[in-house]
């Protein structure tokens, strides 16, 4: 059975994930350490974990497996979930796969080193808007359909 697990702390696409989970009739776990209201949707469960570094990530990594979909921007979490056989999607619709996760981890480490070397460097990414939300929704919809096809006998 396909389940969508969302790393929900600071996730900008929770509403889109809920809409797609509802459309496909799949369970959605919004995993956070507080700050979210429970949903009235019977397919949505808000999973509250203890406060602390990576506690939500550890919960998701322990649950995710083949047939599941994980929504996260956390690259180390994505690597664990890809290794466990789950499909992993970033908030902007990008997919983490066995083919690209090593490169993404290396780039993350390189960027961390560059930021540490220049603490005055201006940071921040581009604005998150309608186009990114639409790409995410399309990617999650495709992932749910693919996961359900693979799970079918």
Description:
The structure is a single chain. The protein is an alpha/beta fold and about 150 residues long. The chain has a single domain, classed as 3-Layer(aba) Sandwich (Rossmann fold), CATH 3.40.50. The chain is built from 5 helices and 6 strands. The chain has helices at about 15-25, 55-65, 75-85, 100-115, 130-150, and strands at about 5, 25-30, 45-50, 70, 85-90, 95. It has a 6-stranded mixed beta sheet with strand order 3-2-1-4-5-6, sandwiched between helices. Helix 3 (about 75-85) links the parallel strand 4 and strand 5. The protein starts with a strand and ends with a helix. The mean pLDDT is about 90.
- Quote the distance from N terminus to C terminus: 12 Å
CATH architecture: 3-Layer(aba) Sandwich
Q: What integer is the average pLDDT?
A: 88
CATH class equals: Alpha Beta
CATH topology group: Rossmann fold
Question: Percentage of helical residues?
Answer: 40-55%
Which oligomerization state do the chains in this entry correspond to?
A: single chain
**Largest β-sheet summary:** 6 strands, mixed
What proportion of the residues form beta strands (DSSP E)? 15-25%
Task: Give the ordered list of helices and strands.
Answer: EHEEHEHEEHH
Low-confidence runs: none
Structural class category = alpha/beta
Q: Write down the Rg.
A: 16 Å
Q: Name the overall outline.
A: globular
């Amino acid at each position: 059975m396909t389940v969508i697990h969302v790393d929900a702390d600071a996730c900008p696409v929770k509403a889109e994930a809920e809409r797609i989970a509802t459309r496909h009739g799949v369970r959605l776990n919004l995993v956070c350490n507080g700050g979210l209201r429970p949903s009235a949707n019977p397919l949505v469960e808000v999973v509250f974990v203890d406060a602390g570094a990576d506690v939500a990530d550890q919960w998701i990594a322990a649950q995710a497996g083949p047939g599941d979909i994980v929504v996260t921007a956390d690259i180390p979490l994505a690597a664990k979930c890809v290794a466990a056989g789950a499909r992993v999607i970033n908030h902007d619709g990008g997919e983490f796969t066995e083919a690209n996760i090593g490169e993404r981890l290396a780039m993350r480490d390189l960027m961390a080193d560059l930021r540490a070397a220049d603490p005055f460097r201006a940071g921040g990414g581009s604005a998150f808007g309608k186009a990114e939300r639409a790409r995410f929704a399309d990617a999650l919809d495709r992932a749910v359909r693919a996961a359900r096809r693979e799970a079918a006998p």
